[in-house]
Amino acid sequence: MHEGVSEPLDLSHASSTTVALVADTHGQLDARVARLAVRCDAVAHAGDVGARAVLDALAARSAPVLAVRGNNDVPAGWPDGEPALAETLPAVARLLLPGGEVVLVHGDAWPAARRHRGLRTRFAEARAVVYGHSHRLTVDESVLPWLLNPGAAGRSRTFGGPSCLLLRATHRRWEVTAHRFPLPARPLLRRAS
Q1: In what order do the strands lie in the sheet with 174-180?
Q2: What is the pLDDT of residues 24-61, one digit of tens each?
Q3: What residue ranges define each of the domains in the chain, with the CATH number in brackets?
Q4: Among 10, 62, 72, 125, which residue has the fewest nearby CB atoms (within 10 Å)?
Q5: Rg (CA), the chain
Q6: Per-residue DSSP letters for 135-184?
Q7: Distance (Å, rounded) from C-alpha 106 to C-alpha 83?
Q8: How far apart are CA 18 and CA 39, in angstroms?
């Protein structure tokens, strides 16, 4: 498996950039999250992607998509013909934005009780760390680096509905907006086996 850090995606020269932050799709991307994401300048996926179709949907309008490997992004967990892609996802990715750097990780390397402290210690140079794994929407801007968990953007353990974050960055100011969508009133239809 590829354990390294990918080359940074550099969007730092723009005057303003909006990035969709998603995680924990597990092979299924909520259409409402996708509609928000494709209007952004870039998309960052914090792992447990689960299928190439998720990355393709996020890149529908040719915005760059940066994704890291989650603990469930193993070859056996991806659809037939796609396991090699799971192995190419890096463990850590970096996104350079106007006003600072975002580090993207899945977050499963730290136990829940020490996750925030561990992420802040390990990536102290970043302005924000985006992580997944817990499926719980979190925006902690109390100190730098900010810790941002977009929650689950698919159908698995959404804790109230699929969610994502939008990060708008300028050289002077960063703003994070949370989006949570209600669960469907009726169960989604499943494909016949």
Answers
A1: 65-67, 42-45, 16-22, 163-170, 174-180
A2: 999 999 999 999 999 999 999 999 999 999 999 999 88
A3: 9-180 (3.60.21.10)
A4: 62
A5: 16
A6: --EEEE-SSSSEEEEE--SSSSS-SSS-EEEEEEEESS-EEEEEEE-PPP
A7: 19
A8: 9
